[in-house]
Amino acid sequence: MPTHVPTPARRLRFLLPLALLLVWLALGGALGPFAGRLGEVSTNDGAAFLPRSAESTRVAQLEKDFRTESTLPVVLVWEARSGQVDGALRAGAGEALAAAAQVPGAVGRPSPLLPSEDGRALEAVVQLRADLGPDTKEAVAAIRDLAGRVPGATAGVAGPAAVLADLSGAFAGIDGLLLGVALGVVLLILLLVYRAVLLPLLVILGAVFALSAACAVVYALAQHGVVRVDGQVQGLLSILVIGAATDYGLLLSARFREELAAGQDRYAAARTALRRSVEPIAASGLTVGLGLLVLLLSDLTNNRALGPVGAIGIACAVLSALTFLPAALALCGRAAFWPARPRTDGKGGSHRVWQRVAELVGRRPRALWVGSVAVLAALAACSPLLDARGVPQSELFTTAQPSVAAQRLLSAHFPGGSGNPAVVVARADRAEAVTAAAAPVPGVAAVRPYTGGAPTDPPVVADGLVRLDATLTDPADSDAALATVARLRTAVHAVDGADALVGGYSAQQADTRATARHDRTLIMPVVLLCILAVLVLLLRSVLAPVLLAATVALSYLATLGVSALVFPHVFGFSATDPSVPLYGFVFLVALGVDYNIFLMTRVREETAALGTRAGVLRGLTATGGVITSAGVVLAATFAALGVIPLAFLAQIAFIVAFGVLLDTLLVRSLLVPALVHDLGGRVWWPARAAD
């Protein structure tokens, strides 16, 4: 019997995907470790959250001239358990303070012990070097230990250095914890939805390869100072890449299964699936990437940092989905869906549930889209209630943290702004006039010159400038403190020849809020214009892109409305971080448009043969299952951000997860198909198409 000899064409069909697979396996092995090394080039410097051009940022730069090195204050507080501070407690606190000043990383002399007006507590300040990096956590831990040894007192350590140390703890292990939770959730959902063993593993592997490549590129760029990475950016990068790569993988694998069901062999099915999927996947990646890059227009460093880093991650997700996964599916064929077997009757893209949904859309399109818009509009009406004035320090973390408890202890006995004063920088020859103008400002408890040591030391003068510390009566992150800063600025700016500027934590919060409002006004319209441009090129239409963008924007406002109700009444957040609405917009609008891209590219494809109304029903039936699965996976992936105990990320997690589900289950499943069906061929204007 003659031996079968494969033809060169058949051999090439096998060797090409095999080569691609081997290349990705090699890259995965070489680049995989970088997914756990971003922490080496990550910084959680608080300056990253300051507006570049704000008055408080200029003060922060000038403050460095008053010290031999930049420092972060640690505020120690002791509350007497017996009711009043006695000599023994004062002596013990003094010894602990002297020891704290010798902790590695501490610089200069500590402040004297300051008793509270009620006589029940003591306060002091130790300065730590600002460039300690990860060692800040160890230094603060050592100071906490020393402060806690004072007998007869309840001790606490607060201030910027303590908050930074707790932030470092919150981000500790982010590489393994967040990645493990996200991948575990995605894998579980895929196993339940597809009831297959190999396909979920292939999709997950593609996402891991994409993340490894993205982390390697970001690591190299961060090492050379081209991009900036902090714990927040690091966590969002992982979630973005895993979510996007999984979504793209599901779209392509669903089309592959559909082509197998149509009777094609595995190689032909992989080629057809790739050809049919490359346009929507590339368009989706472009919309998300452009939306992220628009963040470069922000005046906040941490916002600008996410732009290029996130865009790199999305590019790697697209590359993996269009190279690794088609190659893996071509080699595995029907085995990828084992133990299930793709249908062979040409109906692989159909599903009973979505057939019924399509029938409902076909029967009552106008009632469906009008009803959907009414529901979204009702929810959107609550969006102005979302308070984006900033999360107070007491709510910065979602779990109990020592710095938060210490700040409460400090505020119970001292002016709310103790240890965190408003900083006034002015010309030295006008220091007395500036002090006289600042002292009577309502909300200011005291104004003292900065001496770098004891209060009796002479003030430090640098380049003809002097620094004055204004202790506020209210907590530094309160609305009252921010109002005091506004009054203080008005008062000191009016001193002729002083060139006075006001900075410090409260001023930074006020400037950050103003910058966040400006960023939203500038960036949101630009993101919409970028998305519209991509949709116009993709769909060769003007009306359809405008309608799609409008539905997603309405969905975003509805999500903000729900968040405005849920955050205070369910999660206990009194306010939202100023950047949350902007991040939510970029993620939701860009990612929400993805599902409309997946649907409408299929509708356009079907319209050529069936007409618009039949085409939208066929497109909904064919893509309903995979898009819903992708939406659930993406929502679950973002929900994984909740494992990091930070209010900002918890708020982002809810907004994106809820918004994606709303977009997937209502906007893309009912609103858009019903609207397109009702408009018929007019939806492709100015192009012409049959109804």
UniProtKB/TrEMBL annotation:
The keyword Transmembrane helix applies. Keywords: Cell membrane, Membrane, Transmembrane, Transmembrane helix. InterPro entries: MMPL_dom, Mycobact_MmpL. The chain crosses the membrane at residues 176-194, 201-222, 234-256, 277-297, 309-333, 367-386, 522-539, 546-568, 580-599, 620-641, 647-667. Its main location: membrane. Gene3D superfamilies: Multidrug efflux transporter AcrB transmembrane domain. It comes from the Bacteria. Pfam families: MMPL (PF03176). One of its GO terms (cellular component) is plasma membrane. It is found in: Cell membrane. It is a multi-pass membrane protein. SUPFAM superfamilies: Multidrug efflux transporter AcrB transmembrane domain. Residues 49-367, 398-686 form the Membrane transport protein MMPL domain. PANTHER family: MEMBRANE PROTEIN MJ1562-RELATED, MEMBRANE PROTEIN YDGH-RELATED. Belongs to the resistance-nodulation-cell division (RND) (TC 2.A.6) family. MmpL subfamily. This is Membrane protein. It comes from Kitasatospora phosalacinea. The lineage of its organism: Bacteria, Bacillati, Actinomycetota, Actinomycetes, Kitasatosporales.
